[in-house]
Each structure stands twice: as C-alpha cells, then as structure tokens.
Amino acid sequence: ELPVFVRVSATDWVEDGWNADETVELARRLKAIGTDLIDVSSGGTSANAEIPVGPGYQTRFAERVRKESDIATGTVGMITDPAQAEHILRTGQADIILLARELLRDPYWPLRADEDLGGRLATWPAQYQRATHRDQPIHESDLRD
User: Fold this and answer.
1) DSSP type of residue 81
2) Yes or no: is domain 5-105 CATH 3.20.20.70?
3) Is 91 exposed, middle or buried (0-12, 13-18, 19+ CB in 10 A)?
4) Per-residue confidence (pLDDT) for residue 114, from 0 to 100
5) Among residues 27, 70, 71, 79, which one has the fewest Cβ atoms lying within 10 Å of its Cβ?
6) Read out DSSP for 13-43?
7) Where are the domains of the chain?
C-alpha cells in the first residue's frame, strides 16, 4: 500500500473565490476516502489574485487544515531556511516540508540543511565531501604558477 497525497490550493486569493473554509471541508472528505496527506498550496488559479507573498506565507493554511481536518499536511511557499523549516515541523504547523523553487536554486539544500541543523540525518556523498569545507583558507603552498 502506498500513501496517497493530494495537492490543494487552500485559497485562490480572489473575492468570492475558493477559501480556507472550503479547503478544510475538502480535506475532511479526502481523509474519509483514504487520503493520507494534504499538500497545501495556494493561488495559481487566477491571474487577478493579489497574493501576500512572504516567508512561509502558505504554512498557516497547512496548519489550519491539519488541526481542523485531523489529517497530515505538507506546506510549501518561500520556505528557504533550514531553521524555518525545522520550526514549522517542531511547532506542529505541518508534518512535512515540500520544496520546489528552493531546490532549483540550491539542489543540495537538504544536505546543507542537515549540516546547518547539526548533521543528524545524512552525510554528503563521498564525491562531494570537498564542497563541505567552505571555510578552509587557501595556503600559499596551494597556489601554482
């Protein structure tokens, strides 16, 4: 058996459009038919939307769906800092962090996050170990003519 995730847009950010109340009800119905996790996003459905973009701006929707629908949630949206992601998880705002644009900017974000947060989970692949030594100075003996 595989887990079933469903991505929803919690609000379309337009007047009289889809809203968080409707998303909570949809999540309850999806849970009732066997959905395991709701991937909570927002927007993307109207060119007229005025979206208040900022760090973690969609996380509040994931938190609400999680609490009011009693279903696991994933959150997205300008989650760029490992400490920010860790805070979201530790405070129960969401069950999983889902990254997209941040992984386009930094494909090694998960490895960097692990290092920044204490190196608990993984190690860099052997062929990338040199990339982890950013703070080592170059010595004159390392320079070639």
Assistant:
1) -
2) yes
3) exposed
4) 87
5) 70
6) SSTTS--HHHHHHHHHHHHHTT--EEEEE--
7) 5-105, 107-145
